[in-house]
Automatic annotation (TrEMBL), chain A:
Keyword check for Transcription regulation: no
Listed transmembrane segments: 12-31, 37-58, 79-100, 120-137
Keyword tags: Membrane, Transmembrane, Transmembrane helix
Keyword Zinc: no
Taxonomic lineage: Bacteria, Pseudomonadati, Pseudomonadota, Alphaproteobacteria, Rhodobacterales
Domain of life: Bacteria
Span of domain DUF1468: 17-143
Protein name: Tripartite tricarboxylate transporter TctB family protein
UniProtKB/TrEMBL annotation, chain B:
Annotated protein name in UniProt: Tripartite tricarboxylate transporter permease
Transmembrane segments: 12-33, 45-66, 106-129, 136-161, 167-186, 260-280, 315-339, 359-379, 391-409, 463-488
Segments forming domain DUF112: 19-440
Keyword Iron-sulfur included in the entry's annotation: no
From TrEMBL, chain C:
CDD domains the UniProt entry points to: PBP2_Bug_TTT
InterPro entries, per the entry: BUG, Bug_dom1
Family: Belongs to the UPF0065 (bug) family.
Organism: Salipiger mangrovisoli
Name of this chain's protein: Tripartite tricarboxylate transporter substrate binding protein
Keywords carried by this UniProt record: Signal
Signal peptide segment: 1-22
Keyword Cytoplasm: no
């Protein structure tokens, strides 16, 4: 990777270690409101996380001084971000627009965007999945899925 | 009592009752095999629906689902490294490497045979030994249960993987997540930031789906390949009767793991994952070639799958006799019993013998049916699913994850939480943080704390209460012998090997 | 623009619904929100009662139970408090728990948020001791607790519940002191009692009815003996004035149209005399005591006062 020399602080393990320290420290502050016995276990775990993350940080920085290349998180970062964004978008759409419309949209959308574009296959898969979910959960078990917050109230 | 057992038998063979078990087993395998859907969720969706069914039909469905799902969870664990149920986490250790070596079919056959054996052993324990085993449960008060949890937590040492710092970070993370919610004694909030949804703690299934199912989905979409690497040819499925002889030498593991599974099942609260982890560790310790474990050792699959089915029926022993379920799934099933007016307790066996003993038979038949239904039928059809184009498979799993997590409590909050865990899980996966310590930490952390604090209240603040009875001391000794012992031995042995090199 | 049209439509729809309601309530399914998972005691009560309410409402009325579990029922009851008061959303209501939650934590509802329909179940407290404790009567128990303050450990299901308030009443009445061990739920507490890990327990009669051989049940906190255990003497028979229990009933959001409220309360009132209903409730270990309308509201207020008094003296978290 070309950015090996740009910054030692941007190595994934270092970033993760710093992230753990920040989050654990934040939660540690929240333990101060608790009774001592109540704070014992969470406090111990959070302090443990801070200590371990410091150890992780030191070790990764040593590796950086030795010129070891950082761990590569992904070969195709854009695809990963895109996939994650689509999943989050699907959850939000289910919440606001409703489960069935979102599901009917997401299966062909994800498949097509990531390389499977056979229209017949997409149609068949969508119909089978949505149909089975409807028959089993909605019809069979009278299980309610979100109808969409936009349409309620 | 044994005559009651036989008296209940004809009822079980009634057409609808028996059919319910069959349907249950098939549905269970499917639910377990779908990443994102779990047995807990399936049974909690089923409970309100069973209100209108005959008791034995409802219970047969539940017994079948429980048995089926505990095996079904192994299918994606082996083929995709996504445990279909929490208890299948240990199955991924050797199951997935086997699939990569082209032995996926054999791994699934080992899983189904072992699951069935564990389930049968457990059903017999439930049928024949329920009253005496419930006496064993009574021996375990808060301080004893605390030590059992410590035993389980200490065994995390074996799951740390190659990098102890990362392994311990995983474990601390898991234990920390387990304390989120209301304080076990005072009931005040801890780290919920005013979210009522967090008060009851974070459900195991939410964390598991996030950590284990989301990262592989991202991987499926990340690699621009049209079909998955595991083709039909590579699965290597032979008819099951041809592979049976190759499993003969597992009998010791089957026996040991059944025993461990039953034992963990009768202790309240710990549940299937702990049984599978413990039996995996013990089987590896007893093995002649422990180095091969984790690289695709069929015996590892056998150990994990026997144990996670061996605690199904036995988890119902404390549930039926005392009202305290041994696993999360048994807890939901208890609700299914209450719906039919079956109150747990000694009177249950006197007042409704036909239903209770019939339910036990259904567990036994469910376990036997597992081999027939899960053997070739289910295994082959599910393996074929993996030949779907990867983007399509990914998108279907996304939908299943949402349904599975949403249906537990019927709220989107859990889905968002699952996505958060998914992001964490993806980073952990890429940076090679081991996931099993998170799972074990979540199951046992809060459990250990709750029992410690109850014990301290009983002892009025005196810590010696933890060592004040024989059962506690026996478990402490066992922990030292099984976990601390081997580590010390390794420590003392190490200087010698260093000299040699 | 879009919003204002939507708003107008909603208002219009509500008005039409309001006008129509007066004559022929109910004209669509009524949702009953249960704050616990399917299969819990409250859920079983709601599902057992539902067909009988349908029968007494008449006109093909239909009740649909919806489980909204979480935070010991708080999520569900908050949803009821915030629902439209049109009679199509009812909810289950647990006492003293629902009132205690308004005191020991932030709650988005209060005793004023509801229209009180009916309390249906009253599950009285019982005091039990472990067989191993050697304590077999109330007098022995009180003597022991007075002689060694705090030496008697008491297993119960949680702090801030009916069992906790029962113990506070006992302590105040007998000027004694006990050590509380709050398990998560009554089944673990009962198991610890059977195993002799705690000496005494406060439970409800429905929870010990089938365990009477394995535990010493010392008495029941009612004014008259319970059908669940006719041989079990009340505390007042033994000289201790203790009456306490756990209650479950039905409420609707505040501001229900009067005629709808009257129709619902009338339906609940008829439960009391329905033999079939009483039998169905007995089969699921639910002791029935129907208290409707204003009396139920008064009862709730009394329990709030009790919880508040206990909290002011000995806050439990």
């Amino acid at each position: 990777m070309s950015d090996r020399h740009t910054s030692r602080l941007l190595r994934p393990e270092t970033l993760t270690a710093i992230g753990i320290i920040v989050v654990a420290a934040f939660f540690l502050l929240a333990t101060t409101d608790l009774r001592p016995i109540s704070a014992l276990l969470p406090g111990a775990m959070l302090s443990g996380l801070v200590v371990l993350a410091v150890a992780l940080l030191v070790r990764d920085q040593r590796k950086a001084s030795d010129g070891e290349p950082p761990v590569q998180l992904s070969r195709a970062p854009m695809r990963v971000i895109g996939a994650f964004a689509l999943i989050v978008g699907y959850a939000l759409a289910t919440d606001f627009i409703g489960f069935y419309p979102s599901t009917i949209a997401i299966i062909p959308l994800v498949s097509a965007l990531f390389g499977f574009r056979n229209p017949l296959g997409l149609l068949a898969a969508t119909v089978i999945v949505v149909g089975a979910v409807y028959l089993i959960f909605d019809f069979g078990m009278s299980q309610d899925f979100p109808a969409g917050r936009l349409w309620q109230n | 009592m044994y005559s009651d057992l036989l008296h209940a038998l004809p009822e079980v063979f009634g057409l609808t009752n028996f059919f319910a078990v069959i349907i249950g087993v098939v549905a269970g395998i499917v639910v377990g095999a779908m990443p994102g859907l779990s047995a807990t969720m399936a049974i909690s969706v089923l409970v309100p629906f069973t209100f209108g069914l005959e008791p034995l039909v409802a219970l047969g469905l539940m017994a079948g689902i429980y048995n089926g799902a505990m095996y079904g969870g192994a299918i994606p664990a082996v083929l995709l490294r996504i445990p279909g149920t929490p208890a299948a986490v240990a199955t991924t250790f050797d199951g997935y490497p086997m699939a990569q070596k082209g032995q996926g079919g054999f791994a699934l056959q080992v899983a189904v045979v072992s699951s069935s054996i564990g389930g049968i052993a457990s059903a017999f324990a439930l049928m024949l030994l329920a009253p005496p085993l419930s006496k064993v449960t009574l021996l375990f008060g808060p301080s004893e249960v605390f030590w059992v949890a410590v035993f389980g937590l200490a065994s995390i040492i074996f799951l740390l993987g190659g990098n102890p710092i990362k392994g311990l970070i995983s474990a601390c993370f898991g234990v920390f997540v387990s304390v989120i919610g209301s304080d076990p004694i005072y009931g005040n909030d801890r780290f919920t930031f005013g979210q009522l949804e967090l008060l009851d703690g974070i459900n195991m299934v939410i964390l598991l789906v996030g950590l284990y199912a989301l990262p592989p989905v991202i991987d499926l979409l990340e690699t621009p390949l049209k079909t998955d690497g595991i083709g039909k040819s590579q699965l290597g499925t032979e008819p099951i009767w041809k592979t049976l002889p190759r499993m003969k030498h597992f009998w010791k593991t089957w026996l040991r793991s059944s025993f461990i599974g039953i034992w963990i099942g009768i202790l309240p609260g710990a549940g299937g994952s702990m049984a599978a982890f413990m039996s995996y560790n013990e089987a590896r310790r007893a093995s002649k070639n422990p180095e091969a474990w984790g690289e695709g050792e069929p015996e590892g699959v056998a150990a994990a799958e026997t144990a996670n089915n061996a605690d199904t029926a036995s988890a119902l022993i404390p549930a039926l006799t005392l009202g305290i379920p041994g696993t999360a799934v048994a807890a939901v099933m208890l609700g299914g019993l209450l719906v039919h007016g079956l109150q747990p307790g000694p009177m249950l066996f006197r007042d409704n013998p036909d239903i209770v003993f019939g339910f036990m038979w259904q567990f036994l038949f469910g376990a036997i049916l597992l081999v027939l239904l899960g053997g070739s039928l289910a295994t082959n059809s599910f393996a074929r699913l993996l030949n779907l184009p990867r983007p399509l498979l990914g998108s279907i799993i996304i939908v299943l994850m949402l349904i599975g997590v949403y249906s537990i409590h019927g709220r989107m909050f859990d889905v968002y939480m699952m996505l958060g865990f998914g992001a964490v899980g993806w980073v952990m996966d890429k940076l090679k943080f081991p996931l099993p310590p998170v799972v074990l930490g979540l199951i046992l952390g809060g459990f250990a704390e709750e029992n410690l604090r109850l014990a301290l209240r009983i002892g009025r603040g005196d810590w010696m209460v933890l060592f004040s009875n024989v059962t506690s001391l026996v478990i402490v000794a066992l922990t030292v012998a099984v976990i601390v012992g081997p580590i010390l031995k390794k420590k003392f042995a190490r200087p010698k090997t260093q000299d040699a090199t | 623009m879009f919003n204002s049209i939507k708003y107008a439509t909603v208002i219009g729809a509500t008005l039409i619904a309001g006008a129509a309601m007066a004559q022929d309530y109910p004209e669509k399914p009524i949702e009953v929100i249960v704050g616990y998972s399917a299969g819990g005691g409250t859920d079983v009560m709601a599902r057992t009662a539902a067909p009988f309410i349908e029968k007494y409402l008449g006109d093909g009325a239909s009740l649909v139970v919806k489980n909204v579990p979480g935070a010991s029922g708080q999520i569900g009851v908050t949803e009821v408090a915030n629902a439209d008061p049109d009679g199509y959303t009812l909810g289950t209501f647990n006492l003293p728990g629902m009132m205690a939650r308004t005191i020991d934590r932030e709650a988005d509802y209060s005793a004023e948020s509801f229209t009180y329909l009916a309390n249906v179940v009253n599950d009285p407290n019982v005091i039990v001791t472990s067989k191993r404790s050697g304590i077999e009567t109330m007098d022995q128990l009180v003597e022991e607790a007075r002689a060694n303050p705090g030496a008697v450990t008491v297993g119960m299901s949680s702090l801030g519940g009916d069992d906790h308030f029962m113990l506070i009443k006992l302590q105040n009445l007998t000027e004694s002191e006990f050590t509380i061990v709050p398990f998560r739920g009554s089944a673990p507490a009962r198991t610890a009692l059977m195993g002799g890990h705690v000496a005494m327990g406060i439970l409800n009669i429905s929870e010990v009815a089938s365990f009477q051989d394995d535990l010493n049940v010392l008495g029941i906190a009612t004014t008259e003996r319970s059908d669940f255990a006719p041989d079990l003497p009340t505390f007042s028979e033994q000289g201790y004035e203790l009456v306490n229990g756990s209650m479950r009933g039905f409420v609707a959001p505040k501001g229900l149209p009067e005629d709808v409220e009257a129709k619902l309360v009338a339906a609940f009132e008829q439960l009391n005399g329905d033999e079939e209903f009483l039998a169905a409730m007995a089969a699921t270990s639910n002791p029935v005591e129907v208290v409707t309308g204003d009396d139920f509201q008064v009862l709730t207020q009394e329990l709030w006062d009790l919880a508040k008094a206990v909290w002011d003296e000995t806050p439990w978290n």
